[in-house]
Write a structure and sequence with these properties.
Helix content is about 25%, strand content about 20%. The protein has helices at about 25-35, 55, 115, 120-125, 135-140, 170-180, 230-240, 300-305, 330-335, 340-345, 355-370, 370-385, 440-460, 475, 530-545; strands at about 1-5, 15-20, 40-45, 60-65, 90, 160-165, 185-190, 190-195, 205-210, 215-225, 265-270, 285, 290-295, 295, 310-315, 400-410, 420-425, 430-435, 465, 515. The longest helix has 20 residues, at about 440-460.
């Protein structure tokens, strides 16, 4: 059943066996997983079924350094479906090394292993609609041509895949299942503003909910799950401070710390030898019709040897903002940057001031490359705009064998990178978030050593040359600030409450019935986009909650 909190009587007390806060990827996954188990599930969602300016504004807050992090109301959607309504669909699992305690990676080491999560990844892959759980090109794409003809490397192989969801909007895709589930109620426009603990602080008594039209009610359950993003999880825990002045689960000042995104950007210049036809850097389609892309990666053994974090790289077109590429499509993207979504438009801003001359050169590129530009537009309309399974991103045939590298790297957990509360309050009277995102030296050196390793492999095999300036690498990688909507680590998983917020079952230390299903619990960030692992962890948590209700299950 799907209903609206604005129709709930003021002062009402709603009851459930499990109450989930947030109807994004994690919340919807858990509701789907629990719906046939006889448990009464209440799924509270702040937004409605469409974007609403007043609701989205509840995400507004402060950032310590605007050059390093976007405002908190960007990259996230406060709507039924959450940020799956805008995500790009890139899916891949974490690697086994990501869960390990590494002596060179500070604050690393999960209380679970890859094998604990592995049984849930195939189902997660199905829910995000990314096809088979097969992330090796050798088995998933046996007939695909090599990315670079002749390239073979054990140090930096190019066999690892990323798969792409439709991308799947969880609200649109699974709405009918939730609507028809007799034991599940999705309550829209229900803003959770406070976690009310029992007087001894050992358990949650109820949640306080408000609507923007001034109504207030409570929700009570046997178990509660916070399935919001990493910023909002920390905000709600910190703001609920009537019983514990430091906030829920924050006796050791750990909530909101270790805030990670990813280190990412387009860096360096790769000049490959031979014919452009010997390079295949775009998307392949698997047997089940899923877009896949290969990327360069560093095996776990080499990561340990070099003492680096997990970093991947993809061949990318030359820098879009520089009209010297003489490509009409790229220039068209630059000229349309103000019409493109915030996440991608931001990365079309150049370091230098956009002069009239620069715009003129981009216009000239479009004018002198009309057929290529027109062909791209037709392809984009057919395979992106009108397609149900959308072509994932702009990938162009490269006529010059000149590339940059699109890198995506693990960020080390840093206790000084954190979410706190500001003095501002939102329209519901809840304190706004304040973001102080920071990166560490190992984040940059991991990319540096990965680039050096890949450049050495290309040169050793006589296939090309990779050049970059190590001195400017940090500024290049942080030019647009923290990467996108990957809000990770603010309620991290661990076995010791002095250094973590939740245990191996995602339950808050010291609070008997409160759990977190979110990238907030990630102990480390991996190289991987977080959605697939969020869904896998939500499935694992749903199994745990079912085990607490043996009669219902």
């Amino acid at each position: 059943m799907i209903s609206d909190a604005r129709n709930v009587p003021a002062g009402a007390s709603l009851k459930a066996d499990v109450c989930i806060v947030g109807a994004g990827a994690a919340g919807i996954t858990m509701a789907l997983s629990l719906r046939h188990r006889g448990l009464r599930v209440l799924l509270l969602e702040s937004g409605g079924e469409a974007d609403e300016e007043a609701t989205q504004a509840l995400y507004a807050g402060e950032v310590a350094d605007e050059a390093l992090h976007s405002p908190p109301d960007k990259y996230r959607k406060r709507v039924f479906g959450g940020s799956t309504t805008i995500w790009g669909g890139r899916s891949m699992p974490f690697d086994p090394i990501d869960f390990e305690a590494r002596d060179y990676m500070p604050h690393s080491g999960w209380p679970i292993t890859y094998n604990d999560l592995a049984p849930y990844y195939p189902k997660a892959n199905s829910l995000v609609e990314a096809g088979a759980f097969d992330y090796s090109a050798r088995s998933a794409l046996p007939d695909a041509p090599p990315v670079i003809k002749g390239y073979q490397s054990d140090a930096v192989p190019c066999d690892q895949l990323e798969r792409f969801s439709c991308p799947t909007n969880f609200a649109r895709r699974y709405r009918h299942r939730l609507q028809e589930a007799s034991h599940v109620e999705v309550l829209l426009h229900a803003n959770v503003v406070h976690i009310q603990l029992a007087s001894d602080g050992d358990a949650v008594e109820h949640l306080v909910c408000k609507t923007l039209d001034g109504k207030q009610f409570t929700a009570s359950a046997g178990q509660y799950v916070l399935a919001t993003g990493g910023i909002e999880v920390a905000r709600l825990l910190l703001a609920s401070r009537d019983v514990n002045p430091q906030g829920v689960g924050n006796e050791h000042d750990q909530v909101g710390r270790y805030y990670m995104c990813h280190i990412a950007g387009n860096v360096g210049k790769v000049v490959l030898k031979g014919s452009p036809d010997a390079v295949h850097h775009g998307y392949d389609v698997s047997a089940e019709g899923v877009y896949c892309r290969r990327r360069f990666s560093v095996p776990a053994s080499k990561q340990r040897e070099l003492g680096i974090g997990n970093v991947v790289a993809r061949l990318h077109f030359p820098t879009i903002t520089d009209p010297a590429h003489r490509n009409g499509v790229l220039s068209g993207l630059f000229l349309a940057k103000n019409l493109i979504s915030y996440e991608y438009g931001k990365r079309l801003q150049s370091k230098e001031r956009d002069s009239i001359g620069r715009y003129a050169r981009h216009l000239l590129n479009v004018a002198t490359d009309p057929w290529h530009t027109a062909g791209f537009l037709l392809h984009w309309i057919r395979y992106r705009t009108l397609a149900e399974r959308k072509f994932p991103s702009v990938v162009l045939k490269n006529k010059t064998n000149l590339f940059s590298l699109d890198v995506h790297g693990e960020q080390a957990p840093n206790p000084h990178s954190r979410i706190t509360l500001s003095d501002q309050k939102d329209a519901l009277g809840m304190p706004c978030s304040r973001i102080d995102w920071r990166y560490s030296e190992i984040d940059i050196t991991s990319v540096d050593k990965t680039l050096a390793l890949l450049g050495g492999e290309l040169a050793r095999q006589g296939l090309g040359e990779l050049s970059y300036d190590p001195a400017s690498l940090a500024s290049d990688l942080t030019m647009y600030g923290a990467y996108g909507g990957h809000h990770i680590g603010t309620a991290r998983m661990g076995s010791d409450s002095r250094h973590s917020v939740v245990d191996a079952n995602c339950k808050l230390h010291g609070v008997a019935n409160l759990y977190v299903a979110s990238a907030a619990v990630f102990t480390t960030s991996s190289q991987a986009n977080p959605t697939l692992t969020i869904v896998a962890l939500a499935l694992r948590l749903a199994d745990h909650l079912r085990s607490l209700h043996p009669v219902a299950s």
